[in-house]
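=== RUN LOG ===
request id: a7f3
mode: sequence -> structure
chains: 1
length: 377
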Amino acid sequence: MPRFLRAIGLGRKDTAPVNRYEGFTDRGEVVLRDRRGTRKAEVPEVNLKSEALGDDPLAIYKPTGAKHVDAAKAMGSFTGWAFAAVNAIASEVANIQWRLYQINGNDHQEQEDHDLLTLLEGVNEHMTGIELKYITVAHLELTGNCYWLLDGLNDATSKPRAIYPLNPGRVRVKLDKSSFPYKISHYEFTLDGKISKFQPYQILHIKYPDPGDPYVGVGVPQTIPSWIDSDNYAMEYNRKFFINGAQVGLYIQSETNVEGNIDRIKRGFRDNYTGNENAHKIPVLPKGAKLEHTGLTQRDMDFEKLTTATRDRILAAFRVSKTILGTAESDTNRATAETADYVFSKRTIKPKMLLIVSYINEYLVPRETPPRAPAPR
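=== RESULT ===
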């Protein structure tokens, strides 16, 4: 190395890490020390769960990224086997009819005509009741959160005129940390660069409980990101296999070391011999260039076992069997199909409906049913 470069210290780069992890405090704060030796102890904020994790269109998870999968990324996983499972669950819930009862002691009297039923079936000017149920469950399955904007409210007791489900990937929960336990200060919804703020009484926030976060729920794709990524990459690999003329692991060996010539060879081969339309053409290479094979074949990759394993894991996470999707083996008969329907209804659909109904009973029904006057003594 030239002497003048050594003099200014460019020979070797010894860069200390930006932050070094040192443990936790008694209050649960994460202790970090920066490169200047400054010690910091902080409690991670809830909204760190919704920060972006990268631009890879196939990946919803990066091991070097944030701890949690971004809600917007999770919404983007509505494809492949995740779509099949979510669609099966949401379609089943959408077929369930709301029923309202007036309870007086042990007496349950069904109310067939009520403003709350009208609201849940009419929803808003662009949506029906069936669509609301489907969207609600789809949002819950993908992100663990569903936000109903209750339109037309003036306070915590007024009746809503309409319900608008908000995209969970665009919603942030903001906390008031002035005292413990923390309270939800407001919700922020971002659309087209504009941020709208809503008070807690304006939002009916239905969520799948996250043991590590009492304010924001967690969805299935956010807990199995590596499984979904494996399936996405396997499918993309197979797609590229056919785009590249059903050839695996080809490379061109050339005697030239001129970068311009190498680029021309690569570009010419890509333009003339890749893609379905160019499959099985006889390649003609310039002098000094040879077409080599890595030795790896499609059979060596064993994609059938890989895709079957990832499919089964993804469906198990959503608690949807192959019989429900119509992809079970040929030994399925009426008895096994009816058993699968029973298990799906009891173990998958019923717990989700009980959760949704509990939120409606707790936060929406009281708005539609004024409190009764105390009985005279």
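=== NOTES ===
The first strand starts at residue 19 and ends at 24.
Residues 1-15, 44-53, 62-67, 372-377 have pLDDT under 50 and may be disordered.
=== END ===
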